[in-house]
Every structure is written in structure tokens, then in C-alpha cells.
């Protein structure tokens, strides 16, 4: 499907292109939904920052309980695309305007990052006469070795700081404490995720008991592992769903907010080889576009997975049976998609489709660097329900 699309996009001069396979996205989301569809299993909010593209959000909406947004911009956008979606609003440095917007647009939960933010939110809710439901974002000190990204430092409150929220809440009854939020790391396998969830719940339950909240909610965060070196080895949602459900106690609501592991597999960045050459003993292929359009390989320091779709009509140079480094059109040695990966053949005019481009790809990229034409966007199975 993607291969056919790639050939027709090349023929019509539309490369580079993002191709989003919405059928594959629906299938994957349905699989996750099924793995979490029993009592005690966490409900899922998709983290929009992974990929907030409107057709992606619309395709996911039937399979998730809600959407997590991390800025006023995402909040407005998601509210516009999915007017009825349940929303949670997290993220550091929320401004008064963003908090006001959250109250105006009927966000269901605000994840509070600091005592100062809670104080401002309380003042705002009082002035507007609107009640607001919050989770306090806590940042636990536990060992995060081996994870892709540890969310230490400025995110949320350490257990000492979160104590000062008790007094603020005591004087602001219109701010309802509903639970605890913790997004501690990214890149965790199902067993590692379970261990981290135990750690969160062991800390959070007594805290909520002491605060007198009887039907507490625990948002266990996102960060489910994605392996770019082994695209077929996917996070074990079935094992995860069962293990987390077994941790739940009656009356509690567990929630998760994954992004990458939900949307990453549905996206492709499709481009073509403009030049193939050998320099200092190494083969290079220069591809149309660059990492200003898919920043993922630069941020992750990885070889991005790809497939070559050979062109039948190549007239330029070619190589084969040896490793090749795929670079883009930027004037910087950092513009590398993949380093020294063996290929059977790569010739000028061949199409190269980078897989796993459905998350933290286009929307984290510095598009305007060098002012090359923007990629075009295409959707497979757009209307299927
Ligand atoms: C980025 C983020 C997520 C999603 O993380 P993934 O690694 O994409 O699953 C969830 N929650 C918070 C608070 C985040 O910052």
C-alpha cells in the first residue's frame, strides 16, 4: 500500500511526502483498546504531542478514552478537531492564559506542575466561579537507569514540594483534588512499566488517603517502549493490560497517556535518492528533503529504519552490496537519516521510505532550515470506519 502510494507520489513530483496509514493506525489502536478492555485496566488518553495531525486524532478518537494536551496550542487544536473529547491538560510553565483557556474549553483534568501553578489556578477558578478538577504531578526519585528519557528535573513536584499543595487545596474548595499524575520516563518495556507503576501507586495511595480523597485517580503516564532497531518487536499491550489491572484496587481509576507507542507505526516519510557517491571510501546517498522534515533520527541518535523501492528507470550512479549512509539536503554533517547500513542496491531515482515516522517526526522538526519545499501529506484509508 505504502509502496504503491510512494510510486505514484514520485511520478507526480510530490516527494518528499508523509504518508499516514490510517487503516494500520486503527488496527493498532483497536489492539491496544482490546488489551485494556476489562475491569481495573487503565483507561487510555493519547498524548497529542506525539502527533497532533487532525486525521490521526480523528482516526484514534473511537479507540481512546481521551486526549492529553501539553500546551494551550494543543488544547485549542484538539478541542477544534474533536469537540467532544475528554481532555487532560499537563505540561510545565502553564500561563494564566492557558489555564483560563482550560477552564473555558472544559478540560476534564488539569495536571498541576507546581504549588505556584496551583495557587494561580485556584485564584482563577475563584474569579471565574468555575470548579476545576486536578491531579498533582509528582516526580519520584527512583532509579531510571536504562530508560530512553528520564523525566527528572523540572517536571512536576518532588514528594517534599507536593506537600505544600495541601495548604493551598485546604483554602480552595473549588479546586477538587482527584488524584496523582506521574510520567517518569520513556522507553519502558511492559515489565519495567509495571515496576514503575507499583512505585507510583505505593507513594500515591497513602498521599491520597491522607488528603481524604476516596475514589482516587492515578495517571501512570506514557513512555511505552518503541524499538526503532526492531520495528516488529512491539510493546506487549496484552501483558501490560493484565499486569496493571491486577494492581488496581476497587474504587480507583487508573489512566495512562502514551503517545509514541500509539502512533509511531502508522507514519512513513517517503523520499528519493538525488545522488549516490563514494567519499573517503564510504558510500553516501543524498535524499530529497532532510532531517529538518523528520528530526527523529537526530534526536534519537539512531539509524532510522527504511526500505528501498528500486526505480526501473534509473540513469544516475548506483551502489550495492555495501553499507551506505543516507543523508539529506542540509548543509550540515548532522543531517543523517541512517549511518552505514548495508543495502542490496541504491541508485539515483530509487525511492526510500522511512518507516516509524508517525510520532515525534514532522511536528518536532525545524521545517524552515534551508527553505526547501515542504513535504506533502497523504492518508491511506481516510474514510474507513
Ligand atoms: C510526552 C509525554 C507523554 C507521552 O510520552 P510517550 O513517550 O510518547 O508515550 C505522556 N505524558 C507526559 C506528561 C508527557 O510529557
From TrEMBL:
Record has DNA repair as a keyword: no
Domain Orn/DAP/Arg decarboxylase 2 C-terminal: 18-358
Residue span, Orn/DAP/Arg decarboxylase 2 N-terminal domain: 25-262
Matching InterPro entries: Ala_racemase/Decarboxylase_C, De-COase2_C, De-COase2_N, Orn/DAP/Arg_de-COase, PLP-binding_barrel
Cofactor(s) this protein cannot do without: pyridoxal 5'-phosphate
An MF annotation (GO) of this entry: diaminopimelate decarboxylase activity
Entry keywords, A to Z: Pyridoxal phosphate
Coiled-coil regions, chain positions: none
Residues that bear N6-(pyridoxal phosphate)lysine: 49
Active site residues per record: 331 (proton donor)
Domain of life: Bacteria
GO biological process: lysine biosynthetic process via diaminopimelate
Family per record: Belongs to the Orn/Lys/Arg decarboxylase class-II family.
Record's protein name: Decarboxylase
Source organism of the structure: Streptomyces albireticuli
Source species taxonomy: Bacteria, Bacillati, Actinomycetota, Actinomycetes, Kitasatosporales
